[in-house]
Task: structure prediction
Amino acid sequence: GSTNSDGTFSIQNVPSGSHTLVMSFVGYTTKRLPINVTAGQNTAVAGLSMSENTTLLNEAVVVGYGVQRRQDVTGSIATVQAKDFVPGQVTNPEQLVQGKIAGVNITTGGGAPGAATTIRIRGGSSLNANNDPLFVVDGVPVDKGGISGASNPLSLINPNDIESVTVLKDASALAIYGNRASNGVVLITTKRGVQGEKFTVNFSSQTSVSRPFRTYEVLGADEFRSLIQANGSASQVATLGTANTDWQDEIFRTATTLDNNISLSGNLGKVPFRVSYGNLYQEGIVITNKLKRNTGAISLSPVVLDGHLRIDVNAKGTQLENRFIDNGAIGGALFYDPTQPVRSAESQFTPFGGYYQYLTPTGVPLTLAPGNPVAALRNTNNISDVQRFIGNVQLDYKFHFLPELRANLNLATDLSRGSGSSTSSVTDFGNFNSTATNVNQNGRYSQYKQDKDMRLLEFYLAYNKQLGENTKFDVQAGYSYQDFETQGPLYLPYRFDRTTLFTLGQTQTVTGYYDPFRLISYFGRANFTVKDRYLLTATLRNDNTSRFGEDNRSGYFPAIGLGWRLKGEEFLANNTTITELKLRAGYGTTGQQEIGGPFDYLPRYVTGRSTVQYQFGVDANGNPIFVTALRPSGYNNDLKWETTTTYNVGLDWGIFDNRLSGTVDVYQRESNDLLANVFVPAGGLANQLNRNIGSLRNRGVEVALNASPVRSDDFTWDLNFNVAYNKTKITDLGPQQENFPGYLVEGIPGGTGTTVQINSVGFPNNAYYVYQQVYGENGRPLEGIYVDRNGDGTVNEQDLYRYKQRAPLATFGLSTNFAYKKFSLNAVLRANTGNYVYNSLAGNLANFANANTSTGFVGNLPVGIRDTGFRTQQVLSDYYVENGSFIRGENITLGYNVGKIFREGSNLRLTAAVQNVFLITKYKGLDPEIFNGVDNNFYPRSRTFTFGVNASF
Amino acid sequence: CNDLDLEPKYETTPDRVYVDLNGYRSVLAKVYGGFAVTGLGSDDNGASGGGDVGGIDEGTSDYIRQLWSAQTLSTDEAILAWGDAGVRDWHNMNWTASNPLIRGLYYRIYYEIAVANEFIRESSDDKLNSRLSGNDIATVKRYRAEARFLRAVAYMHVLDLYGGGPFVVETDPAGAFTPPYRNRQQLFEYVESELLALSNDADFAEPKTNEYGRVDKAAAWSMLSRLYLNAGVYTGTPRFNDAATFAKRVIDVPGFALSSAPAGRVASAYGRLFLADNNTSPARDEIIWPVTFDANNTRSFGGTTFLVNGSTSPSNASWKAKNGMPQGGWGGMRATKNLVNLFGADTARDTRGRFWTQGQSLEINDIGNFNEGFGVVKFRNVTSTGTALGGSQSQSSVDFPMIRLAEVMLNYAEAVSRGGSGDATLALSYVNRIRRRAYGVPLTTPNPTVDLAALSTDALLNERGRELFWEGFRRTDLIRYNRFVDAYLWPWKGGVAAGRNVEAFRTLYPLPASDLTVNPNLKQNPGY
Result:
């Protein structure tokens, strides 16, 4: 039975005699109490309290297609419960566990509301294919891709509805998800009603204020003015204004966020339910940027047919509105001449909304001149409206005649509808049309729309059998069908008045896009637990994908996991120091097929737009006849599964009544038949194609440590520390010539086609590929002087060298939690080491040529110019590849539990939190935590102060 | 439920393309368009998006843009000092097998070959007979001959720029295939045999009988004259007799004529060859094969859009107006003083030597400064009535002359002056007609102040320099005259202000390291 929310319970129809009452709850140590029941009498049991079990060894762990006891798990699995989530202003689910799990590296895409987050579990297993983990929400593997109009698809799930986040890291845990599990699986379980629970209302409200906590350092107006006066040409000096504008002050602001959530849970008759509604209004720290989100969730979890049929119904709906900004305005605010005003009353600026702009004497925009960044933000309305619905019905039936056998049917859907538009007003500088006959032919209007439909049917049979007291096995076998469709129309860009950007009045036709794919899978798993000590898990999954040609569609992904619970052995059974000790080993393979388009294996022809037609002759009136071009696409009919083989050895331990516990995992992951976009021999219809080529290896160690140094009635102190080390190496990229350096990646500003990273054999992926800077005696870099590394007397691209890497080598997370009576104090710290960042803003802008490259305007410089004095851009100098190691004070939260209000069973809790408390780094730019390693127009992360109220009654 | 054969909705499969003449005509538009545009045009600007060629910026991957760069920026005709990866290597003459532009040009050429192969593969006699009927079969056979011609031209560019290279034809598989290597001699023989076959192919259009924009036998003869003129460089065996024979055959086609009427105050008779309406007479009577561009319907960031914008200052309104790009101008290419000096004292009278000098210096001290070096006013996006066509998108409608009569006339003159059999008096008269047109005097009236008195090969190199500058001939010409790597210097040749001699192997570009990596059959050129 279960308790109600005030903790009382009763058990009916217990036969007389002596019994053991067992009380257990997820996350707490199970209590056993001997009782004697006398026939015909009520037996009262003394008040019992359960202590928290920080090692969570007995907790039920959500695994793929089922639940296991933590102590029976053979794979590498980490779980974070709601009580341990990162507090404060958390608007996206992945932020709940940032820094909490070893080997799970979560990098937000900057400070914009709803910005895309990159999640890497144990590094990336692929070079070009999708490296995102698979998210499974309440048993529904959701779409991996993004949704038009929402930068981060996870932002469509309200973190307030989440009960726990479980991460599956090694193959023995993952292989059951075969096809899309190569980069780990994140299982999200949402909150639900509990049988017998009293009706409860929970209300939470958070108000946050965000500020930019650092700004880019650029020259001030006076310093810049004297620089141009001293070095600029007469025409450049003439462009200087008299204002003193801090453009960053103009575009950044103090932003407010309101996050309100209400949930109702309880039982409707015998049906446990939970209903929730959330409303989020989040402003970005850049003017005009904001996000609004409404979320609703319903879950019903009745158990019928005498407990034989469990029904789980989940429905989650979200509606999100976003107003984006063009991050170019951030770079623009650095670059724009600080001697110019934001606005001007002069009549020439009237067509531009009164904003100062660089104009020619005839009043039209100066070609190549940057736009006023404030005007660019104010004149552009880039909005989106996205809806997402995730729903499933899961039926779990225990057969009446054979309760050990279960049948489970899961029907699910994940639907999103994204649409949006971007309107540049007629006063917009960048879309000013000097040939327009009326003002409404200025500006710009473009739109997009996307429908994503996922449908899932999964069915499995599971049989479990207890053999004697401590030995059991369970086996299951299932089928999965998952169908994805992404589609939408394509629209043409228009002027403000909705005339086409092309010849006015010319009709343009465009079609649409359609990206379907389908996966059909069969899976099976067997678990054996012998004497509670020897554990074996074996899984096999067969996946079939529509992305490959008929002969290559099928992939088999087996895995095996072994566990030895040493604590259960006699020699440790009575050891009071060691309270838990388990050794795990796993081996298995997973698959990858998400690369490129859905039809990459198929010969296809694509129609070119009407702007790339070709003239064949003239018509009767002598006008040219243009013929639409039909292009044969390159294709690869040999595409097949990429596979990742993982070896993992782990140790779970706990001592001193589990006051100190932890896990250590060592792993190697090897991806073969790597799906990569590579050069193919010239002479075919494409010179780069997705092919199965090469191999990639990740090796690493993860350590997680939990400690409870103080545990008393009034005062508890918990510590959680994790560290992960991961080293990636490309071991093969197909046949290689000695002088072929590798595949250049990550374009940077400062030259079309200029890249700063490389993928080459023997090195980590995304190593920087730069020139080695030579320094003068005074320690300053010498402009344009690089080391002739191959010694051939000349410095050219053969002297580029691989230097450092973008991914961190080690990541650290530290969480601590003090609770004293009604007060609590939480803190989360994170650190990365070994990650290097290319300071693109400095590389691109911190040179004198940038200040006065044109005759019509001048541009400001980052202060980095003082250290280099570079006259022209030196974008490929390793000088700009900087150590990005950092320690970040992610969050400090102070809580006060007021306790009951109005009546028993109610509770009020107040919190105050600061996010982004501090950042310690040598990096000279704003923030080194940038996933792709190129710091360009990065939307700064803010410092946020949050005040929260949580009431339940 | 178990069906994994999904079908595209907006793309089509080959079995649905080649069902009627329209399907063939649209694929042919891609074979031709491969010289002009760079992809599907799916970006908002309609000029880029869905690029054909990977490993290079799409706008930069344009055929004409890269061919022009390889032939012009490596010589005395122009300097371009953008910071984009690989751009400065052209003039510095220090390129390597990893240069992204040399790689991009190579893949663009081979892409053209692949698309032509695909068209030819799908229009075999058997396939045509089973898919089409009547006149449509004959029409597609004519298309097929044109695709063969375009493929031969692409191989001729391989032969000229890279020497040898991979060799793939329509009988090779369309999917994964690693082509064999053919050396320069073998490619020469192949191109020659294709062009000769087309010269006598009943399917190939007779001169002046095809639609505007498409090619005919005169184009094949012109290419043969160009091929034979350079045969000594390509194979070691000069073929000046053949060069003269095929040039003469083109010159004698009724209807081809030098453009000799100026366009009022807008352009000289020479200048209007490079205007936005050069698809009309008299320019079209001289242009034998135009690669067509149109500001609305044939867009790219290469071709003449690149040539016009790249040679115009963004911050000089009158310069932009002159070139018909009121909102354009990329501030890129300028002439070295050697090109300007080629016109000597005649700069004022020779209408070909038109430079933008206002605000520009003749000398180049800082190659990164667009104000150093005269601007070239040649390709202009205005019509002969003076209307600018650039619009807000700054796209060009100037068709690029791949072959024009004046070149063929100069080919004839040079072949004869180098000992090829032909009429030396006639040859001299061709050169003088070209000169008289340039000076704006009657074409057929001898003019002692304008005419050359006699043919000399050196004089012909200079004449080609004046007549054909910035049309993509210079590198080949300098190599033929042994003045590309040494014996002749120009500003910043080899990356030094005064110019320097460079290594002899620079007469050929390297095969890109990326293709050598994946195709073990290939052989790198010496020196790289």
Chain B has a mean pLDDT of 94. Strands of chain B lie at 165-166, 181-182, 287-291, 355-356, 375-376, 400-404. The radius of gyration of chain B is 23 Å.
